[in-house]
Design goal:
Blueprint: H1 3-6, E1 41-45, E2 49-50, H2 62-75, E3 81-85, E4 94-98, H3 100-109, E5 113-118, H4 123-137, H5 142-156, H6 160-167, H7 171-179, H8 185-193, H9 198-204, H10 210-220, H11 224-236, H12 248-261, E6 264-269, E7 274-279, H13 283-295
Parallel strand pairs: 2-4, 3-5
Antiparallel strand pairs: 1-5, 3-4, 6-7
Length: 296
Amino acid sequence: MSDAANARPKRAPLGRGLAALFGETGARLASEPGGARPNSVQMVPIEAIRPSPFQPRRHFAEAELEGLAQSIREKGIVQPLLVRPAEDDAAAGYELVAGERRWRAAQRVGLHEVPVVIRAFGDSEVIEIALVENLQREDLSALEEAEAYSRLMREFGRSQASLAEAVGKSRSHVANTVRLLSLPAPVRRSLEDGALSAGHARALLAAPDPAALADEVVRRGLNVRATEKLVRRRAAQPAPRPKPARDADTVALERDLAAALGLRVTLAVKRRGGSLTLHYASLDQLDRVLALLRRG
């Protein structure tokens, strides 16, 4: 068998753009007489399409959807949706691969049919395409991007290097983005709510106590550069030494003296001798102790 036959085809990077996924440049909206051909544009009922469970985006901005709906009213859908046949139920129709914003906007307009290109994709390819489509518009949140990378690595064996190549990002960007998922839940919520930016969150990754510093950053309104300085300053501070365990005999003596005097008592034992501290809450308590001492 020849070397050419043994050679495994390389997986094409998806970061070059979604146009290549249609198998032709600049797919046009046109009916295809005589049955659908591979990569041809077809019109299908909008209710026959359902969203993908692999969509990395969880939030769709209201203003963007309304603006897209207005564009569809005026010009129609210029770029067809990319779908795949639904595998779990033949009657389910199609599952979106790319174009959920257009699908949602088309529903607002009241379209009964939408143009689609039907392709048979595996789950891993669907996730990659959805990720790339959103990354190319840069409208994924930092946590949505991190979760998408994590899922590709966890479920489909993608490495950070191959992900970086696929989406046109640096390997360090992928690594640092995935690390955002290790932040404490309160910090992730602040990032999701917009109280912290992705830059703030990346700076907090090196903090000894990210949650506490995140609260301080939000309270003081620090920018990313000031946050980085704060993290470095806190990381350079020596950790507080744990207090040594107290001797059981000393604790027992404190308890006995407190019971006899009616005050809280603290003993500080040193190598030679020590000190006795009486804690009183009022002058009446102090007078009672003085009376006890005089009688003694």
